[in-house]
Amino acid sequence: MRKPILAANWKMQKTIPEAIEFAEAFLPLVADAEVDVVIAPPFTLLDRLGAKLSGSGIALAAQNVNPNESGAFTGEIAPGMLVDLGCQYAIVGHSERRALYGETDALVSQKAASLLNHDIRPIVCVGETLEQRDAGSALSVVAEQLRGSLAEVASDRASEVVIAYEPVWAIGTGRTATPQIAQEVHESIRSVLGDLFGAVGGEIRIQYGGSVKPETVYDLMNQPDIDGALVGGASLDPEAFSRIVHFEREGSQ
Ligand code: PGA
């Protein structure tokens, strides 16, 4: 069984006091959660938020990493530095990084492999643009991104990877993919993972991301190949994100 994984991507948001305030409100709301809960704050919050989350069972994640061990890479953060801070996960290849900072599949794949070498689980993001969807190429675009972004991941570590399918047209737009559209892509991702990693492909968790809200999470999570969510906007509010973590309760609303 794949354990559900609900992750917050705070992007470039929250100061230290705001993050502490979030944690104080959020922790009591999810104390009984039986799923994996992950928070990816900006780098500046990893230390203080990590201390606050320690012992809670909630995992800390980075939003990016440089694949090199150390060296002259001004402004970059190495995987070993994330280990220092207690990160268990790191997001790689988010569409904002692909679009705004030229991140390629090859670089994403190096980042994923480097993270695994440090026992940090990569959350590898893939997703098509609206133009690609309208052109009927969503499944092929996602399959190609997946193969490129996982090229350097060894089969014996693949079960530690998390995939996040995030259609670019759904991110921050309020336009969530329907559960049927999301499931169609997740099923196709599952089959590519099977090609790449054999039976291990069936153990890899695939999150959906793109305007996930408490109101939409239950029907998404009910799909057979949707194992979690990567949540931006709605994860900034402790009450909203706690409802997403308790997605099964939303079904009885
Ligand atoms: P959103 O962001 O939930 O605000 O659409 C999701 C993401 O970019 O990971």
Overview features:
globular, 15% strand, 8 strands, 253 residues, alpha/beta, single chain
Question: Could you walk me through the main structural features you see in this protein, from its secondary elements to its overall organization?
Answer:
This protein has helices at 16-29, 46-53, 79-84, 95-101, 105-117, 130-134, 138-149, 179-197, 214-221, 238-245, 247-250; strands at 5-9, 36-40, 59-62, 89-92, 121-126, 162-165, 205-209, 228-231. With 253 residues, the chain is of the alpha/beta class. The protein has eleven helices and eight strands. An eight-stranded parallel beta barrel has the order 1-2-3-4-5-6-7-8, surrounded by six helices. Helix 1 packs across helix 10. The mean pLDDT is 97. It starts with a strand and ends with a helix. Strand 7 (205-209), helix 9 and strand 8 (228-231) form a beta-alpha-beta unit. It is globular. It has one domain: TIM Barrel. Bound molecules: 2-phosphoglycolic acid. 2-phosphoglycolic acid is lined by residues 9, 166, 171-172, 209-212, 230-234.
What is this structure's SSE topology?
Elements: E1 5-9, H1 16-29, E2 36-40, H2 46-53, E3 59-62, H3 79-84, E4 89-92, H4 95-101, H5 105-117, E5 121-126, H6 130-134, H7 138-149, E6 162-165, H8 179-197, E7 205-209, H9 214-221, E8 228-231, H10 238-245, H11 247-250
Parallel strand pairs: 1-2, 1-8, 2-3, 3-4, 4-5, 5-6, 6-7, 7-8
Helix pairs in contact: 1-2, 1-10, 5-7, 7-8, 9-10
The site of 2-phosphoglycolic acid (PGA) has 13 residues, from strand 8.
